[in-house]
Design goal:
Layout (H helix, E strand, L loop, with lengths): L1 H22 L29 H25 L29 H25 L18
Length: 149
């Protein structure tokens, strides 16, 4: 019975070592047999070929082109994003101060435009009230009363 117990404890210790090796691959491998060797992953016949200098430069150029295209696509699809300018000498024309810019309207024209926009807003509110009777009525006069039918 003592031999069986010793055999069980040896098996448990071996299983513990295997579990530790499996759960902690970062730990170094302890080799007791000096004749044990391993193949080098990079020098084997089936290893992937190493790129030449020209291929590496071509890949870098392609990746730079792709990054530039991505930036252009982002700039095109999102015009609301600010423009980053790194050149301090970069200038632009003002849209409103150019010679062909539309003339500024007079005070009378501005007042007429404001009146037309106010009338349009009131008409829109009336149209919404007419087309959506389910919306609640907002009363600003507290003396207004109504009878519930």
């Amino acid at each position: 019975e003592a031999e069986a117990r010793a055999q069980i404890l040896d098996d448990a210790a071996a299983l513990k070592k295997l579990a530790k090796d499996y759960m902690h691959p970062e730990l170094p491998v302890v080799v007791t047999d000096f004749s044990a060797t391993a193949r080098c992953y990079f020098d084997r016949v089936s290893a992937p070929d190493v790129d030449s200098l020209d291929e590496a430069e071509a890949r870098a150029q392609i990746l730079a082109d792709v990054a530039a295209l991505k930036k252009l696509a982002k700039d095109y699809m999102h015009p609301e994003l600010p423009v980053a300018v790194t050149d301090s000498a970069a200038t632009a024309r003002c849209y409103f101060e150019r010679y062909s810019a539309p003339k500024v309207e007079s005070v009378d024209e501005a007042d007429a435009r404001a009146q037309i926009l106010a009338d349009a807003a009131a008409l829109k509110k009336l149209a919404i009230d007419y087309m959506h009777p389910e919306l609640p009525v907002v009363v600003t006069d507290f003396s207004a009363t109504a009878r519930c039918y």
